[in-house]
Amino acid sequence: MAILKNEPVYNFKDGDYCKPHHIVVKGSWKEIGFDLATIGKNEYGVKLLPYYSPLYGKARQEYWAQNWPHVAELQKGVLKAFGHPEDSVEFDGTNLSFDWYDCMRSGLDLGGNTCSGLVLPPEKSEGGAVLVGRNLDFHPAVEWTTTLGKKVPEGAFGACERPVVVEFQPEEGYRSIIASTNELLMGYVDGINEKGLWLSCMHDPAGVGADGSPPGGGDVSGLVVTQLHQLLLTTCATVEEAKEAILKNRVMQTLMNLHIPIVDATGAATVFEIDQKTGAYVFADRVAGEPLFSTNHPVHTYPTPDTFPDVDMTEEHNTFVRQIMLREAYSKMTPPFTLDDAENLINTVHCSFVDSVKACAQAGERTLTNIKADLSKPEIHVRWYLRDVAPVPGTNHMEDKMSDFYTFGF
C-alpha cells in the first residue's frame, strides 16, 4: 500500500461546508496511481473519462512517455485499479476528477471574478522571507449544474465541498503537497514542494479554452492546465526551471481557463498566462522590490492600474477593483513584512457578500479556501470555509466562519 494517511483534517460538524481530507501517499508512481485511484473509486465516486477515439489515447500515452515518464507510470496504476489493461488507450488514466457535473465540451460563461493571490517582496520582508497568500473564491453549490439552471442530482456534492490535501512522497522526483479540490491525482489549487516552489491558480476568462469543459478524456492532447501543479512540483525547484518546462510542452485549457502564479524560495515570481489573441505562452514577472498580485484578468495585458479600464469601486469583487484594493492596502503597510501581513492583506479581498450581484460576484460566492505560506519553509497553512454567520451592519459584507489554519509541511 502506498497510502500512509487518509483522514479528515478536522472533525466535521453539521452545517460545515468544506470537509477536507489529508492523504499521504508514498512509493513508486505506479503504486501511487493505483492507490489514489482505489480511494477515488471507492470513496469519491470517480469514473474514468473516455477518449473520443483510441487515437487520442495512444497519442497521449506516447506524449507522457516522452515528456513526463512518471505520469506514464501513474496512469498504469490508475488503469489497473479500474480493471483496464495498463496500456489501454480507451480511458484517460491521468485524471481522478470528482464532484463536477454537466461538463460540456462547448463550455459555458463563468464570468470573470473568482480568486485572488499575492506575493510580498522579499526585499522588504523580515529575514528576506518569501511570503504568499491566496483566496480560492467559488460558488458553494453543485457545479456546473447550478450555473446551467438544471435540477441537482440526488446525493450530489457541491464544488469544493470535499477538498483534499495530498502529500506525494515518490521514489523519484521531489516531494510535494497539493491542497486541491475535486481532483486526487493531479491537484490544482495550491501546492508546494520540498524545494520551496509554490504554484497557485486563478480563473482567467481571457485564456484560451472552454470553461466548464471536462477536465480530461475526449479530445484532450498534451497536458491540461490543471495538471501543471503536480508535474512542475515533481520536477522543478525554481521558477526558471518551471518556465522552461512549460515552454517545452503543450498546455490545453479545460475545466477552467486559468493563469498560474509560480513562486520559488528565492523570491522569483511570475504568472504564466496564455495570450488570447496569439496563443503564446507568456510570463508576467514580479518586479524587484515590488509585490505581485493576481486576480482574474491577464496580468501581461493589464499590469498596473494605469492600464485598467474604468471600474465602479462599489463592485468590490470585480477583478480590477480587488487589484486596486490590494495595492491601496499594501501602500499602507510598513516593512519588514511578516506572514501575518500576507494573511491580513489577502483578507482585504475576502469574498463574502450579502448582495452578490452588487459586489459583482457569483450568487452566494465565498472564499472557500484561504492559504498563506513563507516559502523559506517548505510548508503551507490552509483554512476552509464552514458557514455564514450574519450580515455585517452598514456594509454589503457577510460575516462567515472559517476553520482554524492547518499546517502541512515536510
TrEMBL record:
Domain Peptidase C45 hydrolase, first and last residues per copy: 128-301
Ribonucleoprotein among keywords: no
A Pfam family that the UniProt record links to this protein: AAT
Keyword Nucleotide-binding annotated: no
GO molecular function: transferase activity
Keywords from the named record: Transferase
Protein name: Acyl-coenzyme A:6-aminopenicillanic acid acyl-transferase
Biological source species: Novipirellula artificiosorum
Organism taxonomic ancestry: Bacteria, Pseudomonadati, Planctomycetota, Planctomycetia, Pirellulales
